[in-house]
Amino acid sequence: MTAPQTAPAAPWTPPAPAAPVRSARDRRRTGAEIWLVLGLSLGQSAVYAIVNIVARLTSGTALAEQSATLNASRSARPYLDLTYQLLGIAFAVLPVALALYLLSARGPGTLRRIGFDAARPGRDTAWGFALAAAIGIPGLAFYALGRALGITVEIQASALSEYWWTVPVLILAALQNGLLEEVIAVAYLHERTADLGWHRLTFIVTSSLLRGSYHLYQGIGPFLGNVVMGVVFSWFYTSRWGRHRVLPLVVAHTLLDVVAFVGYAFVPDAWLAALGVG
């Protein structure tokens, strides 16, 4: 008895783009919106990072002898520190809500359009793990190379004291980074630059340079490494594999940061010293 015939799956096609903004007034408004969203989030971080790297390079101390702490304690009082940490995370993700709200002006289906929904949980998670592996392993080697070349500062992934809430807060901080960077630097920026009629390649270059710029405070090496990560992520998002779904990028970024923030505490000191990690 032969198996019933099934129709072949239709090839994936990208969602139809919104009609490009035509009038000069609407183009100015869209451009102003992009600048405002970035100015309240990653663009602001990029400006501070640029100032920071200039200060580092002109300080008279070699980059290799400088350090950066990613998750610093904000108070010696445990529960006050916890309060500050949670407030910082909550306010940091508000620009994500703002970006999604502005995109929703197009009408229903905004979250589905950028793949910020639960339509494909298994596929999104699998791609997230694959992207994390593809970026994380070379990234560690790139960091070690940057330290050896003297173009990367010593990075301390966490300086939080060991309390019961430390690991959950570090996981939330990782999720915050994943949401903020991937939703704004990839999904939101792609949608809005598409509205302006940008070519895909122009978007990929812009998104990648933006990603690298707000990591400049870590040195030249992390800038270059994050530009590469930006190219991979923004290319994947717009490819037939990524299918304009941002959740795999959020999963991948969160996993990378969880390993960096939480795993940092479990790596032997000898290994950290070999990598030049504080």
TrEMBL record:
Keyword Zinc-finger (UniProt): no
Assigned keywords, A-Z: Hydrolase, Membrane, Metalloprotease, Protease, Transmembrane, Transmembrane helix
Region (Disordered) residue spans: 1-24
Transmembrane segments: 34-55, 82-104, 125-145, 223-239, 246-267
Sample GO molecular function, one term: metallopeptidase activity
Low complexity: compositionally biased ranges: 1-10
Protein name, entry field: CPBP family intramembrane metalloprotease
Source species of the chain: Isoptericola chiayiensis
